[in-house]
Give the backbone structure.
Amino acid sequence: MTKPPPLHAHQRAPRELASSELGQRLPMVMSLLGRSLRHAYSPIGLNLGQYPVLNSLLERPNAMVSELAARERVKLPSMTAVINQLEADGLVAKEPDPGDRRCVRVNLTSHGQEVAEAARRARATWFLARLGHLSAAEVAAISRALPALEHLVYLDQ
């Protein structure tokens, strides 16, 4: 009897995939990549929890704290703590929602806008520097994987 050809990762059952090399390595690599990004933000004085909020406010200003929490997939008290720290640092301003005084709207201050844009540039520079160390084939492989990774990230939305 001949052995069937090995299954590719996308053909495996979820349980088999979770215990496979992909199931073990992908979460570890993603976690390490996220932690490595700290180096991109540290010269600016931001931490990993602050940048996504500032970036989100660059793209969609005047957000409610609950909207920001949902976008970043964190609990409301955690987002409130991040917003309070950003406000203390002069990067965001909070104001009551005119339609519902129980809700708080958040916007970047002018200083917050500058910091958010500097962080965005620092992040791009950090990634470009690392991509510059890869072969053209490796960069192409990452580019081809992006749609699948984006799909993976947005499955819960």
Q: What stands out?
A: Residues 110-131 form the longest helix (22 residues). The chain has a mean pLDDT of 87. Helices lie at 14-18, 21-36, 38-41, 50-59, 65-72, 76-88, 110-131, 136-153.
